[in-house]
Amino acid sequence: MNIAIIGTGYVGLPTGVGFAELGHNVICIDKDEGKISALCQGKITLYEDGLAELLNKNFSSGKIKFTTSMQKGVAGADVVFLAVGTPPHPVTKEADLQYIFAAAEELAQYLNGYTVVAVKSTVPVGTGDKVEALIKAKNPTADVDIISVPEFLREGYAVKDFFNPDRIVIGSDSERAKKVMAELYADFADKTEILYVNRRSSETIKYASNAFLAVKIHYINEMANLCEQTGADINEVAKGMGLDKRIGNRFLNAGPGYGGSCFPKDTMAIAYIARQYGVNMTLIEDVIRENAARKKQMARRILETIDNIPHAKIAVLGLAFKEGTDDCRESPAMEIVNELLANGADITAYDPQAMTNAQKLLGNKITYAPNAYAAIENADVLAILTEWPEFKTLDLRKVYNTMKNKNIVDCRNMLNRKEAEACGFHYTCIGYKKNRAQEQTENAA
Ligand code: NAD
Predict the structure, then answer these.
(1) Domains of the chain
(2) Residue 262 catalytic?
(3) For ligand 1, is residue 127 a contact (CB within 6 Å)?
(4) pLDDT tier at 4 (50, 70, 90 boundaries)?
(5) Does residue 68 carry a pLDDT above 80?
(6) What is the mean pLDDT of residues 417-429?
(7) Which residue of 26, 222, 225, 301 pairs with 20 in a disulfide if CB–CB is 3.0 to 4.6 A?
């Protein structure tokens, strides 16, 4: 099939490459000339495990092409995916649909023959109706169906998730559009549930899922707070909870709060939608507020360890919002770093993939180190803020010898607490703090 994808970012690019790999003819359209010019030279524009190789292969074979021209991309496409950004409105925090509407208006004039326009961007319930009205107004004779096909891929696993999604949701009442999508997703039919629902349900499924996951993350963080007061260990508690199949073991890692380009904006967007419809969603409102406060609490935790050290140096490991990506949008690490800077901190940081993006946001306010050990050199405290696997295997002896003062604040519970303490570190993690009775027992032993 001929597929056009509008928006060549963290969703559009892996989706385009994935469909090309499945044998479709893909053309990716973006108005960012720098991105398209790089991609037209076969250069990858974002970090995703395995994406560069697949891009090279399909670009060389001509299965995937890139353009800034909407006309070139849309004319002749069987399916046009809309994968542009839907960032939070700066004031109301609702999803800002200006990019969706601009792209819909522009594509309308180039529709040619029966086309399915599939909205992949995360959009509020009812957006499909608005996109349909816009396209019909611009091109009244267009033979087109507007459907919702939300994206559920996880950054860091985008390629894996494209080929092995938990589910594919298709929101449409049009039998004709459903037939086209069944053909497009035929390769997935044996292994993945393809759920056909109405367009409004489909739009809602995406927000409902992300809000639920955000609540789950916040829930385990609240349990971690409780564990820190009681002497229980959140890692053990989460393991015990996760063995219950009704709960599941994913999204039970206590940490610095959720971040990234989706959860913060999608929780705010669904809360806004609920308010518009007069529906009470205090659970999500609370989670949004408390999750924001958590970043400040983490910064305070780091600062407390160096309270009495003049001109203390903080080493930060991890700037991306999670492992496996170079994306720093709404990264908890970036928010913590900003809070530390606001308190006059001197920071040297390292991230395996996100340094370029971090530098775009932080400029020269911090020092960037070429590797983890260089960041740690002469530091008074080491703060681990992103769960990159390489931080798990740090040589703690070497870290100890490299640091000036031996403090670690492990906001991702990456290190082995007992090993770190045995090395002589003052080690602080999330969701475990010895209470007095435990300290007495350990001292007596
Ligand atoms: P992104 O910012 O990485 O990419 C969006 C791209 O769209 C940009 O390259 C931008 O230049 C381009 N664009 C904007 N307007 C355009 C237009 N009129 N014509 C052509 N190109 C245009 O965004 P993203 O992270 O890929 O997210 C896209 C959508 O997918 C959002 O709604 C997001 O909520 C949703 N989503 C994201 C993820 C994720 O993990 N990033 C996961 C699921 C869903």
Answers:
(1) 2-197 (3.40.50.720), 215-443 (3.40.50.720)
(2) yes
(3) no
(4) very high
(5) yes
(6) 96
(7) 26
